[in-house]
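S.,

As promised, the FE2/S2 (inorganic) cluster run. Input:
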Amino acid sequence: MQRNALPHQKIVYVCLNERENGACCAAKGSAAIHAALKEAVKARGLNRQVRVSRSGCMDRCGRGVNVLVFPDGIWYSEVSEGDIDTILEEVLKDIA
Ligand code: FES
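Predicted complex:
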């Protein structure tokens, strides 16, 4: 085992979990939100500072799409594509 410093200043986790009954973030468009956040970070040249990553279920399926920002400790729920700019602004405001 190796013990390392975090490789990114922030990690934005987007739940992409999919359930057969449709009660999940995937059914509410989380893949598109994940892709848009990832592309926006890349377009700003901030891939080394901010990682946009997929997550499994965060146990808040009824409030999806769920997005968690580490290490900020911020949890966005009921996220839609219209919220992407707001999330980006908040996530990136203190990135060096
Ligand atoms: S499916 Fe996203 S929190 Fe459960």
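Residues 15, 17, 24-25, 57-61, 64, 66 surround FE2/S2 (inorganic) cluster (CB under 6 Å). The chain has a mean pLDDT of 96.

- D.
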